[in-house]
Backbone:
């Protein structure tokens, strides 16, 4: 496969390159693109040194099978439609196309069937949504999902490289807030993104709309509170869910244990430091949420891997007829 990655020098772009190797993608040619500022740098795919090229219209004079974008909404809106001139599928990691009714929002283990026969732009969901949607999809099929209340504990890498550098600097005594509205070192910030008129912030709204779209049910009620925490990598979530039917805990555990993309722990729990290079959504502490039609669970995943790069590469492989 001939592949291009746009935004290759960022945290997610670099992970996409690693995932191509780890997931054994049959790559025959790989081109890397970034902004003018980052162009000229060298990245490595397997043992091959690849020079990063500046993204401009000339990039689409070449033919690709797939183009993966991780360069922000602005670049995606301008360049993704142009990239379709050079390939059959564009996979975008930004929020630019997630709400578009005509563009699939895909987690391959849940709704990968949407990719069959499809050519165009595919939206990669928000990091905090992907990891929660995987277990919720299993539970929805079993018991009929009605309502979700989730509180997130999201690492600074979700803010990109600058978030990581801000936390490191503050740990060394800096008082520079970076892009955060308050200190993040030894602190929590219950706001991710801009405030909306209804009192939610944009990260919370993403979890509302994207969960319903992925599960193909706009009647599911979703209430999210998203919190930035002083953790480098790995997003954690406390999820409460209500269902149409009574919840059989043993059945829920059984199906969660065998579901693709999920690592279920019955007698312990996972923390961000435990994740390592895992590409899975880790579920633990499964229990009733006060009555028999409800469940509560603890959910942790690597936001750069499962929450971004890995899901994008899995979309590509699924479309190409390979199983990651």
Residues:
């Amino acid at each position: 496969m001939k592949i291009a990655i746009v935004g290759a020098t960022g945290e997610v772009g670099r992970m996409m390159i690693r995932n191509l190797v780890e997931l054994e993608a049959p790559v025959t040619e790989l081109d890397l693109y970034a902004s003018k500022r980052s162009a000229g740098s060298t990245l490595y795919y397997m043992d091959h040194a690849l020079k990063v090229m500046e993204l401009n219209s000339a990039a689409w004079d070449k033919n690709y099978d797939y183009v993966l974008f991780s360069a922000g909404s602005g670049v995606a809106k301008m360049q993704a439609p142009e990239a379709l001139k050079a390939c059959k599928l564009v996979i975008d990691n930004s929020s630019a196309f997630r709400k578009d009714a005509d563009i699939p929002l895909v987690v391959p283990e849940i709704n990968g069937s949407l990719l069959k026969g499809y050519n165009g732009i595919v939206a990669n969901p928000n990091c905090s949504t992907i990891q929660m949607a995987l277990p919720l999809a299993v539970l929805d099929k079993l018991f009929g999902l009605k309502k979700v209340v989730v509180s997130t504990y999201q690492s600074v890498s979700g803010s990109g490289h600058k978030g990581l550098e801000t936390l490191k600097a503050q740990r060394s005594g800096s008082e520079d807030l970076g892009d955060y509205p308050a200190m993040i070192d030894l602190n929590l910030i219950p706001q991710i993104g801009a405030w909306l008129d209804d009192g939610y912030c944009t990260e919370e709204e993403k979890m509302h709309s994207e969960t319903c779209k992925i599960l193909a049910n706009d009647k599911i009620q979703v209430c999210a509170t998203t919190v930035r925490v002083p953790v480098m990598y790995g997003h954690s979530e406390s999820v409460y869910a209500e269902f149409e039917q009574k919840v059989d805990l043993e059945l829920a555990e059984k199906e969660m244990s065998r579901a693709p993309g999920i690592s279920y722990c019955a007698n312990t729990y996972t923390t961000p430091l435990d994740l390592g290079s895992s590409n899975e959504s880790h579920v633990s502490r499964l229990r009733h949420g006060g009555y028999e039609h409800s469940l509560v669970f603890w959910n942790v995943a690597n936001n750069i891997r499962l929450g971004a790069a890995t899901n994008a590469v899995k979309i590509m492989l699924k479309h190409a007829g390979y199983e990651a």
About this structure: The radius of gyration is 19 Å. Residues 73 and 94 are 5 Å apart (CA to CA). The chain has two domains: 2-125+308-320, 128-302. The helical segments are 11-22, 73-83, 108-111, 127-143, 161-171, 202-214, 249-258, 305-320.
